[in-house]
Amino acid sequence: MNIGRGKKNFSLPLLFLLFPLSSWVFPLPDIHYIRYIRYIRYIRCRTSLTPMTTQETLFSKIIRKEIPADIVYEDDLALAFRDINPQAPVHILVIPKQPIAKLADAESEHHALMGHLLLTVKRVAEQLRLSNGYRVVINSGSDGGQTVDHLHLHILGGRQMKWPPG
Ligand code: 5GP
User: Fold this and answer.
1) What CA–CA distance (Å, rounded) separates 156 from 86?
2) Which residues are catalytic?
C-alpha cells in the first residue's frame, strides 16, 4: 500500500508564497548595513589626509611612505618590501607603483611593467642571496586568496617549499 500516493505536495507553492514575503521582511537590515558601510567609507575618505580612490590600498600608502614598511628595493616602477606576516624566513612583496588591482586586470599596455616586476623579483632574490632557490606566488582574486587589491608578487625563500600549495 502506498500511503503517499494521491497526497498533494504543498511545499513548493508554500515556498513561492513565502519568498515574496521574506524578501519584504529580510532585505531591510541588508539595506541599512550597505548604507552604513558606504557611510563609513565616505567618512574615512573625507577625514583621510590624502584622498582615497577606489584603488587606494595599504600598499598605495606604503608607496607614498605614509605608513612604514621594511623596503628592500625601489625604482621608478616597482617597490619591494618585507611582508608583515612572513610565511617563510624570507618573504618579500614586489609591487608595481601603478595601482593595478590584480593580475586579472593587467592589460597589454602593462606588458613591459609585468616583465619589469619579474626581473625585479630576480634582482631582489639575488640581493637577498636566495641562491638555493625561492618561490614566486601571485594570488589573483578571491579564489586565488588575494587579500590586498594591489597586484603583488610574493617571494618566499629561506626554506624548502612544499607542493602542492594549499
Ligand atoms: P595576498 O593575500 O593579497 O596575496 O597578500 C597580501 C600580503 O600582504 C599578505 O601576505 C599580508 O601579510 C601582507 N600585508 C598586508 N598588510 C600589510 C602591511 O601593512 N605591510 C606589509 N609589509 N605587508 C602587509
Assistant:
1) 9
2) 152
Pairing of strands 78-82, 153-157: unpaired
The Cα–Cα gap between 151 and 88 comes to 20
Phi, psi of 5 (to 5 degrees): -65, 140
The closest of 124, 136, 130 to 158, measured between CA atoms, is 130
The answer to whether residue 132 scores a pLDDT higher than 90 is yes
CA distance 131 to 109: 32
Please tell me the predicted confidence (pLDDT) of residue 94: 99
- List, for residues 59-104, the tens digit of each pLDDT value: 999 999 999 999 999 999 999 999 999 999 999 999 999 999 999 9
User: Ligand 1: does its nearest atom lie under 6 Å from the Cβ of 142?
Assistant: no
Span of 33-42, 96-105, 119-128, 150-159 with lowest mean pLDDT: 33-42
Question: Integer distance in angstroms from the first to the last C-alpha of the chain?
Answer: 53
Handedness of CA 10, 11, 15, 16 (dihedral sign): negative
Output the CA 147–ligand 1 centroid distance in Å.
7
Pocket lining: 69 vs ligand 1, CB cutoff 6 Å: yes
